[in-house]
Design goal:
331 residues, alpha/beta, Metallo-beta-lactamase, Chain A, five-stranded mixed beta sheet, 12 strands
Length: 331
């Protein structure tokens, strides 16, 4: 299945995806350094390097406060300075959990809330950028876990905005109770139920919220209701396609077996292939380190049109590894 995704995406990427797979299987061909490991590591040497002028020499001024403040896989509720990503798209999350704000004349669209406590930081960051949180007209959910949607009830009470979530995620957002089919069911405390409107979105649906045209892409795997989103951003004469891609890591409780849920695994791989084929100039993810955001900010490589394809291939590799481990445990 990984071969199908990696080689099918080679044309999309205009890059040697199959060669990437080959080098990954040969450690000597791809030495595992702090700058190359696929876990979001950004520092060389890692960890503990000082963030001096030489280290930050390629970092754009707009990104520098965040890079200086935050570390890879940082705390979920650690306050972070907001910054502009591109055009009218801004990062307003914490060091460890993303929240993405898109500003338009018709209002603000906010992707994810962070935790219940993190939502207060998101609110403050929106104000820091000069926007009024009360102008948020749409709250958009990546997936139905408390670290990304735990603050949705607070933000909906504050703004009155409708919440948009995947079809399988919507009941969880409404009730605050985890889906019993979720690979991580039983691992997290319930979220606060949201008091207002929750609208379900489906794969391929194109809608306009707060003046922003968004394409929803179903990418189940981390959860059943996980969604990714794509939109256009223009700054002067430069127009780019941004993708907020879900976490897509095969994490679960000790009891859960992906190999015992064949249909779910098929939908997992299908979602990865959809994601990898997207137009994608800038990749953003709910955990910034999943897409090595700090490294890309520091080296001024946030614009990377192959990022979604490589991200999908990496997650397919993670899922294949998980399935192999489960097979070995049953032998």
């Amino acid at each position: 299945m990984f071969d199908r995704i990696a080689c099918a995406l080679a044309i999309t990427m205009l890059a040697p995806a199959c060669a990437v797979q080959e080098s990954a299987s040969n450690p000597s061909a791809n030495p595992k350094t702090a700058e190359s490991v696929p876990d979001g590591s950004a520092w060389q040497p890692y960890p503990g390097a000082s963030k001096d002028a030489e280290f930050l020499k390629k970092t754009p001024a707009a990104f520098r406060p965040f890079v200086e403040r935050c570390d890879p896989w940082d705390d979920w509720d650690k306050p972070a300075p907001p910054f502009k990503i591109h055009g009218s798209t801004y990062y307003v999350g914490t060091c460890g959990i993303a929240a993405i704000l898109v500003a338009n004349d018709d209002g603000l669209a906010l992707f994810d809330s962070g935790t219940e406590g993190g939502a207060r930081i998101v609110e403050d960051n929106i104000r820091t950028l000069g926007f009024d949180p009360l102008n948020v007209k749409a709250l958009v959910v990546s997936h139905e876990h408390f670290d990304h949607a735990g603050g949705m009830a607070y933000l909906q009470k504050l703004t009155g905005a409708a919440i948009y979530a995947g079809q399988a995620a919507s009941p969880v957002i409404r009730s605050g109770q985890s889906d019993p089919k979720d690979p991580q069911a039983g691992m997290h405390e319930p979220m606060e139920p949201v008091p207002g409107s929750v609208r379900s979105v489906k794969n391929g649906e194109i809608g306009t919220v707060a003046g922003l045209e968004i394409t929803a892409i179903s990418t189940p795997g981390h959860t059943y209701g996980a969604m990714s989103y794509q939109w256009k951003s223009c700054e002067g004469d430069q127009c780019l396609t941004l993708v907020y891609a879900d976490s897509l890591s095969p994490v679960s409780s000790d009891e859960y077996k992906f190999s015992e849920n064949e249909g779910y695994v098929t939908s997992y791989f299908d979602g990865l292939e959809r994601l990898g084929r997207l137009d994608c100039d800038i990749l953003l993810t709910p955990h910034p380190s999943h897409s090595q955001m700090l490294k890309r900010m520091r080296t001024d490589t946030m614009i990377e049109p192959t990022a979604c394809a490589y991200y999908a291939i990496g997650k397919a590799r993670d899922l294949e590894k998980r399935l192999r481990r489960e097979a070995e445990e049953t032998e």
